[in-house]
TrEMBL record:
PROSITE patterns: 4FE4S_FER_1, 4FE4S_FER_2. GO terms for molecular function: heme binding; iron-sulfur cluster binding; metal ion binding; oxidoreductase activity. SUPFAM superfamilies: 4Fe-4S ferredoxins, Nitrite and sulphite reductase 4Fe-4S domain-like. This is Sulfite reductase subunit alpha/beta. Signal peptide: none annotated. Keywords: Iron, Iron-sulfur, Metal-binding. It comes from the Bacteria. Residues 80-105, 109-138 form the 4Fe-4S ferredoxin-type domain.
């Protein structure tokens, strides 16, 4: 959906795969970006303002990224990490079968999760009958600087936050820096490259 001076896209509502509900974040972001009055503010940089000048934010409920957060200025994807509890594992292998990343190994004394493989997608966390494997910390994975067009590039990792408010603050602070220091005709991703913001990975 295109709002005044920005665009926020999102993936499917109420998807059963969702690791994090994006609806509240969507509302908070809409309010914050509206308050920046970008149509007026960006007139200092672009005349006329074209569609590709407007910042694009993309929300996805899980690392599957169906709404394509990797090619937007700001990509925000939900995550939920698996947590192993003290409840005894009964060795049913349900969690092993559920993990597309083959990150879980079931052994005689319980399971092991390879953190280097795990995407924190949450797929394994609803299948455990013993309560050994449950949902742990959840939040948002942040990516910045993706674009299509003449010089396409994937967004780069910008870390993770746990709250909706932190995600909004990250977008807002980035935009305020761009409004303050972006040069005439300089698009957001080019500004971020000049600021070395995209050297985060
Ligand atoms: S990104 Fe995840 S939560 Fe959103 S529609 Fe795709 S699978 Fe569902
Ligand atoms: S959260 Fe996803 S990737 Fe990580 S172990 Fe569970 S199913 Fe595998
Ligand atoms: S689903 Fe639960 S009980 Fe079954 S192997 Fe995994 S951790 Fe153990």
């Amino acid at each position: 959906m295109q709002q005044s001076g920005f665009q926020i896209e999102h993936c499917r509502s109420n998807c059963p795969k969702s690791a994090r509900d994006w609806h509240n974040l969507y509302e908070l972001l809409s309010t914050k970006l509206t308050s920046l009055n970008l149509v007026e503010t960006l007139k200092d940089k672009f005349n006329p303002i074209m569609y590709h000048h407007l910042p694009k934010v993309c929300l996805a409920g899980c690392p599957n990224g169906c709404s394509q957060p990797n090619i937007k200025d700001f990509g925000i994807s939900g995550y939920v990490t698996p947590q192993i509890t003290a409840a005894p594992c009964i060795g049913c292998n349900a969690c092993v079968r559920s993990c597309l990343e083959m990150a879980i190994t079931c052994q005689a004394d319980g399971i092991i999760i390879d953190k280097n493989r795990c995407l924190s997608c949450g797929d394994c966390q609803g299948v455990c009958p013993s309560g050994t494997l449950i949902a742990g910390e959840s939040g948002w994975t942040l990516r910045v600087g993706g674009r299509v067009g003449r010089h396409p590039q994937f967004a780069k990792s910008a870390g993770q936050v746990q709250t909706d408010e932190e995600a909004v603050a990250w977008v807002s602070q980035t935009m305020l820096g761009y409004i303050e220091d972006g040069r005439p005709e300089e698009r957001l991703t080019h500004f971020l490259e000049r600021q070395k913001t995209l050297n985060l990975e």
